[in-house]
Amino acid sequence: MTTLLPALRTGGTRPALRFGERALDYDALAAAADALATRLRESGADRVALWATPTLETAVGAVAAVLAGVPFVPLNPRSGDRELGHVVADSVPTLVLAAPDDQLPAALDGLTRVAIDAEGSGPAPAVAEPEDGEAPALVVYTSGTTGPPKGAVIPRRALAGTLDALAEAWAWTEDDVLVHALPLFHVHGLVLGVLGPLRRGGALRHVGRFSPEAVAAELRSGATMMFGVPTMYHRLAETVGTDPELAAALGRARLLVSGSAALARHDHERITAATGRQVVERYGMTETLMNTSVRVGAEPRPGSVGLPLAGVELRLVDEDGKELDAWDGETIGEIQVRGPNLFSGYLNRPDATAAAFDDGWFRTGDMAARDPDGWVRIVGRKSTDLIKSGGYKIGAGEIENALLEHGGVRDAAVTGEPDPDLGERVVAWIVPTDPQRPPTAEELAAHVAERLAPHKRPREVRMVAELPRNDMGKILKRRLGTAP
């Protein structure tokens, strides 16, 4: 296997990373990462934790661990002590890497701390990367919606395979400059958003806390790509129609990419109308990295995540695990994938690893339909977004998109609840545009029935002040039952 980060040795004085006003070129990044990688190898650590704040130090720590071949566990700084305690006890890191000024919680008191020197102290001996593609690179803990978080072990070949497949799909080169404001404890912000540009030999500009003004400033000054989650694009969509400068900045981008959850069709349309640019969606998850994407040059279809990436096989199966051969855009099945992008397994959980696979195919738990030309349209999670009502299988995502096209709806989520007659009834959770004059349940039901089918209309509507979301912008539907 070739090295993951060849540009560290060839990039020279080309810009590599910028976080706010702090920046490193490739030579400076290599010096800082080599010095830390040497310390990691000399420590004999089998696994290290990384306090993953959105800073230059986190990026240097991740690069150093990749160089050293020491698997690292990115820690979410917003996690509580109980969750951090579980992750530390499960992954058993020897060290914790952190910026010198970081205040670490008590859950990490038992770990030896190593301060990350992002500025470096001059050239350091180059550290040769491991050549074994199956060697673990990092362990990313899942959200734990069905129990304590599980550590997905991501091998080096999965990183290389996913990043190279995305480079092919997006025509991603060393000339690209990526801007984003994503957290660095997850696959989207860390693997795609930091290691992605560095593998290509391009540059990353991280703006810290997201704002339309911050990303617009970077796009005006040479950034060519933006990565974001639907919450960010929703904020852009709400503003771009009345802000010509923002519209012009977004219009300069070569590529706008949304991921981690589905982007509402209404937001797609508002951004395209104002900027002339269409947002590209891709589909992945912690255990699989990236599975599909819309290609550069293809006409995006709001609601679709495109075709499988190079090397990825994808199929839909019914409830009995039988492969569906109906590519009609309507028949819904669970997505299963296999390919070099897959994780090695769950750390310390051989039972969970075995249960996650079906004869070599990973069970994603995501439900989708395929168009006749193979494009994939995700309708939601099997556990929370597939509603069985009156003999029909209904995807919550398409109802949510329809609801968001109503002018009186600012945000929406759809769930299924037990119903003695229908089996499950469709329930809509609505954040109204004007809380003083919310749309009526009858109005919203008719709105959905006109756009989809009568059996997909919400049978119950509940108004809420906001929808619970995680750090990646995904709606936490399991918490909606306790919403006011």
TrEMBL record:
Domain named AMP-dependent synthetase/ligase: residues: 12-347
Domain AMP-binding enzyme C-terminal as annotated: residue spans: 398-474
Record-linked CDD domains: MCS
InterPro entries per the UniProt record, alphabetical: AMP-bd_C (IPR025110), AMP-bd_C_sf (IPR045851), AMP-binding_CS (IPR020845), AMP-dep_synth/lig_dom (IPR000873), ANL_N_sf (IPR042099)
Pfam families: AMP-binding, AMP-binding_C
Entry-linked PANTHER family: ACYL-COA SYNTHETASE (PTHR43201), ACYL-COA SYNTHETASE FAMILY MEMBER 3 (PTHR43201:SF8)
UniProt record similarity statement: Belongs to the ATP-dependent AMP-binding enzyme family.
Protein name: Acyl-CoA synthetase
Organism for this UniProt entry: Streptacidiphilus monticola
